[in-house]
Amino acid sequence: MPLLQTLLRLPARVLYLALFVTAIGLLGFGLYLQHVKGLEPCPMCIMQRYAFLGVALIALVGGLHGPGQTGSRVYAGLIGLGALTGGSIAARQTWMQLYPPEIPECGPGLEFMLESFPLGEALPMIFRGAGDCAAIDWTFLGLSIANWSLVTFSATVAFALWMLVRREPAR
Fold first, then answer.
1. Residue 27: is it exposed, middle or buried by C-beta count within 10 angstroms (0-12/13-18/19+)?
2. Per-residue pLDDT reduced to its tens digit, 18-76
3. Closest listed residue to residue 160, CA positions, set 43, 23, 30, 44
4. Average pLDDT, whole number, for the chain?
5. What is the topology classification, in CATH, of domain 14-165?
6. Which pLDDT does position 1 carry in this prediction?
7. Contact at 8 Å (CB) between 162 and 72?
8. How far is Cα 12 from Cα 84, in angstroms, rounded to an integer?
9. Torsions phi, psi of 140, nearest 5?
10. Which of 48, 95, 120, 159 is at a distance of 20 to 30 A from 153, taking alpha carbons?
11. Per-residue model confidence as pLDDT tens digits over 75-93
């Protein structure tokens, strides 16, 4: 119990920097899977990476800033929004993996969609996913990358909610 109490009493700065390191580690692992193991990310995977990057950058700013209680809540709210966005994409991809389309289509890549269509049209196409978004190319402990992404985003939302309601420990 003393270790848990110590962790709960850490300043917001330390907690945000720990989240930054975690998110960057996850992004690095995704790049490892892509460039070393040859797993090409689908458009939904790329959007999840952007969400992880957004969470990481907000956490870095929060860690460097060393905010007080109000600032910590602002950062927590922004991190929560980023994690909810990424989590919704991961949830949609998880759903597609559980119930794959009957006729898998290889839709256009993310770069093509964003260059060829206005953002208002491209985003719904991204969230619908392509046939390759339902593919499960890698698993760990029985969970796909999308499943792990959903777990991680859910944990990040829980972290953000905790940071919103916790009292900043006395320094």
1. middle
2. 999 999 999 998 888 888 888 878 888 888 989 999 999 999 999 998 778 888 889 99
3. 23
4. 80
5. Bromodomain-like (1.20.1550)
6. 54
7. no
8. 20
9. -140, 125
10. 120
11. 999 999 999 999 999 998 8
| pLDDT computed for residue 111 by the predictor | 63
Looking up tokens 């919704």 gives 88
Calpha distance 80→55 (Å, rounded): 8
Parse the chain into domains and list their residue ranges.
Answer: 14-165
H-helix segments, the chain: 2-8, 12-35, 43-65, 69-98, 110-116, 119-128, 145-165
Q: How many residues does the chain have?
A: 171
- The identity of residue 82, as a single letter, is G
Non-local CB neighbours of 96 within 8 Å, separated by 6+ positions: 129, 133, 134
